[in-house]
Write a structure and sequence with these properties.
Blueprint: E1 16-18, E2 24-25, E3 37-41, E4 47-51, E5 58-60, E6 63-65, E7 67-69, E8 75-78, E9 81-84, H1 102-111, E10 122-134, E11 141-147, E12 149-152, E13 158-159, E14 170-175, E15 178-183, E16 188-190, E17 193-194, E18 200-202, E19 208-211, E20 214-220
Parallel strand pairs: 1-2, 12-13
Antiparallel strand pairs: 1-3, 3-4, 4-7, 5-6, 8-9, 10-11, 10-20, 12-14, 14-15, 15-18, 16-17, 16-19, 19-20
């Protein structure tokens, strides 16, 4: 039940699950936290799913729990999505269609956009992290290694759930002096200073970006 009906995910110890951060990304369910849970392995081979500090933890048997065993037949809920644990034999793997993790998605994106030359797609120097402090995406964190990256309510790249913005709120790209921001909406400010549409601003560690009711903080990595 939920956005991932009929989808399959392979799990192993050390994997993480979340809407924005994790080996398994559940981006289609807005009720899932940015980083929701971790798969923990025991010496005896058993696997457990442990909460990573999410708002809603997990539901199992009608109860909210912070940890559950991933035993065959277990049924649990993350956000609006209900999952069942199944044991898969090696000969059955080819019958399933596993979801790709974030690394595979990045490589697919680059593979499908080979025409993007180095003047368009560039690594950020330094890499940055965008943390949402206030607004519908509060607690969400995005780690950016290359750009340009687009943020906005209608963006396939990084969707922010902000009503008081144009479809694309802002773009972050690698400028001459490091990561830079280009405003794409009329209601954007950096460090409480209004930034007009198509104006570029160099970003530094600690800068704050405001779009409507959403406030973001820039962290250099």
């Amino acid at each position: 039940m939920g956005p991932y009906t009929h989808k399959h995910f392979f799990i192993k110890p050390g994997m993480t699950i979340g809407r924005k951060v994790g080996d398994i990304l559940l981006e289609d369910d807005p009720t899932i936290s940015s980083l929701h849970g971790r798969v923990i392995g025991r010496p005896d081979g058993r696997l457990f799913l442990e909460d990573a500090g999410s708002s809603n933890q997990f539901l199992m048997g009608g109860r909210q729990v912070a940890k559950l065993e991933l035993a065959a037949g277990a049924v649990f809920q993350i956000g609006k999505s209900v999952f069942e644990v199944i044991a898969v034999q090696p000969q059955d793997l080819a019958k399933l269609s596993p979801q790709k993790n974030w690394k595979d998605l990045v490589f697919d994106h680059l593979e499908n956009n080979r025409e993007m030359g180095p003047s368009v797609a560039k690594p950020f120097s330094p890499a940055i992290k965008i943390e949402c402090l206030e607004g519908p995406n509060a607690e969400d964190i995005w780690t950016l290694g290359f750009g340009p990256r687009l943020f906005g309510p209608a963006c396939e790249d990084i969707e922010i759930l902000e009503n008081n913005s144009a479809d694309v709120s802002f773009e972050i790209f690698q400028g001459d002096l490091g990561p830079s921001l280009r405003s794409k909406t009329q209601k954007l400010s950096v460090n409480r200073r209004f930034v007009s549409i198509d104006t570029e601003v160099n970003l530094s560690d600690g800068d704050e970006i405001q779009v409507g009711e959403s406030r973001f903080k820039v962290h250099s990595l």
